[in-house]
Amino acid sequence: PWIVPNPRLPFQRRAVEGRGGSGGVPFPGAAGDRSYPRRQGDALPINVDIKHYYGRDAYKRGDFDHARKLFERGIEMNRRDGRSWLGLARLHARRGDDDAARKTFYSGMEACKKNAHLTQALGAFEERRGNAGLARQLYIQATRHNPRHCASWVSLGILEQRARKFDSAREAFRTGSAADPSNYYVWHAWGVLEQECGKMTLARRLFQRGVQVNPDNAATFHAWGRLELAEGNTSKAEALFLRALSAYPDNSRVLVSYAKLASEHLNRAGQAQRLLDKAIKAHPRDGAAHQALALLFARGGQLARARESFARGTAADPRHCPLWQAWGIMESECGDVGKARELFQEGIW
Question: How do residues 223-234 score in pLDDT, each as one tens digit?
Fold first, then answer.
């Protein structure tokens, strides 16, 4: 059916404005991409947008069967629109079917020639599975497909940074920021790199550029705040953590960092406990928040409450190894070596 685009609806607003992916560059064949004209017989782009929108919604809700049908229908409507291929590949990966995910990625890349989004996404898929060499090749291929696709440059930069190839990482971030200066994440990632390299002044400038691009980006305010805390600038760190929480009040990582600042540097144990209680309420399965609360109690000599917090945390997030280790260290310091050994072993398993 023919549909009149309504900019008030999110999936149709993207179609009207022509935003098909990160960095503002549409997918080949997606609405708004004039470089890839629609062929006779292709579905109207807005109808593919609708399938993709509801497919993503079903995926987020965990209704994978319905999401799969919608993505497959989107592919039938226009095989040259990469979004449905990407959604279907990610769905297979989420279900643990890596073979089906790879097959879908490569089928999509065959149907959507030189699609940087799909190529970069396949690189991320392979990187998560430990295939760093293949991931690097795919990221480089994606940047050749579309030199303006900032996400590919960022992915390549982070991969190089993890490999301790700092010069290559820096060059990737520099190229990505030139390709899309409005992409806040490239400034964030570059700032993290320079902080790791000890270039704090440059890192500050990059974080500042990132929050100028996106004033509601809690992650960059948090990273900048942690830098200032590490440098001993507690007042500046507190201001940045508060700015991050104004953008994302329930961000457990920011709450944990602010609690650490409050308890260890500002002598505000009560405030720290309130911040950690809020983090756990918002994210009950966050092992780091449980660990921070347990350690707060331990430092205050409240060992029984510390054990209760460790127990709740390990029940909520049994795979959080540092939580088991912290509990084991506490028991070891209390003289219960046998209990400590059991807890260390749980962390290893």
Answer: 999 999 999 999
